[in-house]
Amino acid sequence: MKRIKYTSLLLFVVFIALILAGCGTQSEKKENPVTEKKPEFLFRFGATQPEGHPTALTLYKFKEIVEEKGEGRIKVEVYPAKQLGGNVEMNEAVQQGSLTMTYGAISYMGANFEPRYNVFSLPFIINDKNVEKAYAMMDGDTGKQLSATLEKNGFKVLGYGRQGYRNITNSKKPIQTPSDLEGIKIRLQPNKTQMDTFSKLGANPAAIDFAELYSALQQGVVDAQENPIDIIYTNKFYEVQKYLSITNHFFEFTGIYMNKGIFDKLPADLQQIVEEAGMESIKYQRQISEESEDEYLAKIEAEMEVNKITTENAELFQQKVQSMYSEYVEQAEDKEFAKNVLNNLGVSLN
C-alpha cells in the first residue's frame, strides 16, 4: 500500500514539474520571440534567356549579392526564360514600374528609347582588336551619356554586359558570301540599323521579337535568324535550323535596366548596394559569356552544319555595308556622338 502511495506521489511530482517546465518555456518564448526578418523591398527581375544561359546566371548573381549585402532588406525574385514576356514587353513594364528590372540587348533601347545606341548596331565595327576599347567606352563617358537619356525615360542603368558576336543560322544552305543571302527571309531584332544591314546584304529582313522567334522558324515564317552562339544553343534553334555560319557581323551589348522611380525610393545605403551589385554582376557576366563560347560552339557542331566565312569573304560582306557608316552619321540626330564612337573604334567613314 505504501508502495502504491509512493508511486502516485512520484507521478504527481513529475506531472507538476512538466507543467512548470512548459510554463517556463512559454514564458521564455514570450520574452525572447524568434521572428524572421521580412524584406522591406521586393524586386522582380526578368529576362528572355533560359536557365543556364549566362544572362540567367547573371540574374541569380545579382540576387545573391543584393540579398547578402542588404542583409535581407531586399528580396529579389528571378524570372528568366521569357516568363514575363519578350524584350519589348519587359522594357515597357520596367518603364511603367510594374516590373522592377530587366536585362536585355541595347538594340531594343536604341529602337524605342534612345536612338544614339544604334551606332553600336552598325555591322563589323567591333572585333577582337577593339572590343576592349568598346567595353571602356560603355563603362565610361559614352555609357554615362546614354544612361542619362534613359533616366529621362524612366530607367536606371546598372551596367552594360556582353551578348557577344552575332552569327547567322538558316534552314536553306551555308552562308559563305553575301550572294548566299539573296532571297533569304531572316528574322532581325526590331532595330532599323540592323534591318538596314541585312537589306544591304541582299536578304529579306523581318522584325520579330525574340519571344516569338522559335515558332517563326518552326512554322517557316522566316528561313533564318542571327544571334550569339550561346543563345542559338540554349534556345535549341538547332531543332529548327540546319546551318550555322560564323559571320560575327554585329557585336551586341546588353544592359541591366531598373525602374528609376523604384530606385529613387530606396534608402541611400541600399541604392549603393544595388549599384555595386549591378557592376559586379556585369563583370561576372562578361567573363562567363566569353569563357562559354567555345563550349557552346562544340555542342552546336554536334547538331548543325557549321562553317566560318573566310577572311576574303568577310571582306566582301564588309564592302557591301561600308557606305552605312557615313550614311548613319549623316542621318543621326547627334552627329558628333556618332562620329566620336566610330572614330574611337577606328572605323573609317570614307
Structure description:
It is built from 14 helices and nine strands. With 350 residues, it is α/β, with parallel strands linked by helices. It has a single domain, classed as D-Maltodextrin-Binding Protein, domain 2 (3-Layer(aba) Sandwich). Helix 2 runs antiparallel to helix 11 and helix 13 packs antiparallel against helix 14. It is globular, with a radius of gyration of 28 Å. The N terminus is likely disordered.
Q: Shape from CA axes?
A: globular
The count of helical stretches stands at 14
Please name the CATH topology: D-Maltodextrin-Binding Protein, domain 2
Main sheet attributes: strand count, strand direction, barrel closure:
9 strands, mixed
Return the string of H and E elements.
Answer: HEHEHEHHHEEHEHEHEHHEHHH
- Uncertain regions spanning at least 5 consecutive residues: 1-35
Provide the β-strand percentage band: 15-25%
Question: Summary?
Answer:
By secondary structure, the protein is α/β, with parallel strands linked by helices.
Question: What's the SSE blueprint?
Answer:
Layout: H1 2-31, E1 41-46, H2 54-69, E2 74-79, H3 87-96, E3 101-105, H4 106-112, H5 131-139, H6 141-152, E4 155-170, E5 185-188, H7 192-200, E6 204-207, H8 213-218, E7 224-227, H9 229-234, E8 243-259, H10 260-265, H11 268-301, E9 305-308, H12 311-321, H13 323-331, H14 335-344
Parallel strand pairs: 1-2, 1-3, 5-6, 5-7, 8-9
Antiparallel strand pairs: 3-8, 4-7, 4-8
Helix pairs in contact: 2-11, 13-14
